[in-house]
Structure to design on (391 residues):
């Protein structure tokens, strides 16, 4: 806006200056020619020079002097006895009759006009730019508020709203209302999916419990072992679904307490079904929920054995707990988009992602920790749990 105002001011100033200058030059040229005509008549009648006329003045511009040598008359701008002005000259016999019309006042008036336009332009810029800045800041503040709310919604807070007051012809208010409507629709759909997942898992839990009991009563044998294994896997899946539903609904609460990681992590790893090497580089005391840390480590170690290759190592370095395997590493899609529920199409990891990493991520958020997934420089996948340090 400042550039536009300055450009308009300069353009108007230049146009006015040129128009005024052209008019002054045109008037001066006409006045000088009239004065020259009067001087020529007087000189032809009695051989005398009127006031302001002279013969063969050395101050006459060279181009005008050359024009009179060719027997023609003309005018030209140049310096004279009265300062800068308009010369008019014509040949009289073998001599040059010339007059000079001083334009000192006209030039001073033109300079004053230029200064007046410059001051008016600066005042206009000084007035318009702050008003434009205030207006632009108001618009920018509303746009930033809408953008911040949209980012908050994208981060998972579907309760965030812009709540802009509707105004006729206000496009920003229309955008804000559209974002609020989108967030409300997403929230309603997500809650419907969460309720559906919880209801399905809850309804499956009762018959599945009976199925687990019935499978335990089957006679020993290879088919029985296969059925029992599949029933246990189905039971674990249903329990995971219920856990995900509770985490999504915000029904879980963390029980935080001071915990030394040098003691907590080895105990958690010992409770898993897999063997993993624990290395405590530097110990630290954190404020966390031991049960949920154990749940996170169980999922991470199980995921490392299921999709990677041993050996699996768990390293404690102050508040950072890293679980690493020596398999092909995490898929690029998982690193770019994060854990996805039941996502398939991961041939480099062998099978779909299931719910293990999703639950680990949600449990980490619940205790205020951060779960970072990456591939180790030497090969293999590594998941780093960064716990909040004790104040």
């Amino acid at each position: 806006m400042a550039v536009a105002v300055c450009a308009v001011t300069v353009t108007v100033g230049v146009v006015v200056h040129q128009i005024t200058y052209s008019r002054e030059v045109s008037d001066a040229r006409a006045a000088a020619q009239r004065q020259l005509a009067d001087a020529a008549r007087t000189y032809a009648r009695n051989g005398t020079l009127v006031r302001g006329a002279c013969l063969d003045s050395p101050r006459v511009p060279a181009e005008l002097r050359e024009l009179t040598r060719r027997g023609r008359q003309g005018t030209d701008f140049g310096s004279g006895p009265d300062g800068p002005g308009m010369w008019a000259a014509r040949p009289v016999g073998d001599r040059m009759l010339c007059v000079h019309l001083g334009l000192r006042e006209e030039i001073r008036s033109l300079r004053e006009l230029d200064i007046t336009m410059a001051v008016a332009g600066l005042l206009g810029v000084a007035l318009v730019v702050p008003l434009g800045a205030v207006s632009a800041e108001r618009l920018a503040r509303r746009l930033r508020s809408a953008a911040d709310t949209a980012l908050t919604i994208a981060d998972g807070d579907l309760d965030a709203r812009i709540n802009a007051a509707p105004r006729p012809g206000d496009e920003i208010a229309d955008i804000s209302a559209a974002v609020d409507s989108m967030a409300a629709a997403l929230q309603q759909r997500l809650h419907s999916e969460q309720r559906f997942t919880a209801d399905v898992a809850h309804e499956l839990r009762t018959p599945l419990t009976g199925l687990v009991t019935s499978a335990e009563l089957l006679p020993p044998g290879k088919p029985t072992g296969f059925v029992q294994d599949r029933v246990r896997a189905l039971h674990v899946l249903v329990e995971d679904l219920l856990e995900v539903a509770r985490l999504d609904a915000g029904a879980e609460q963390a029980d935080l307490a001071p915990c030394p990681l040098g003691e907590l992590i080895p105990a958690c790893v010992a409770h898993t079904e897999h063997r993993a090497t624990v290395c405590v580089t530097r110990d630290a005391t954190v404020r966390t929920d031991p049960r949920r840390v154990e749940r996170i480590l169980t999922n991470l170690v199980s995921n490392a054995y299921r999709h990677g290759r041993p050996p699996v190592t768990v390293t404690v370095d102050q508040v950072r707990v890293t679980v690493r395997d020596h398999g092909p590493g995490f898929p690029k899609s998982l690193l770019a988009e994060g854990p996805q529920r039941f996502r398939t199409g991961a041939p480099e990891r062998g099978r779909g992602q299931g719910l293990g990493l999703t639950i680990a991520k949600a449990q980490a958020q619940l205790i205020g920790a951060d779960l970072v997934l990456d591939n180790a420089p030497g090969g293999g996948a590594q998941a780093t749990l960064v716990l909040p340090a004790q104040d």
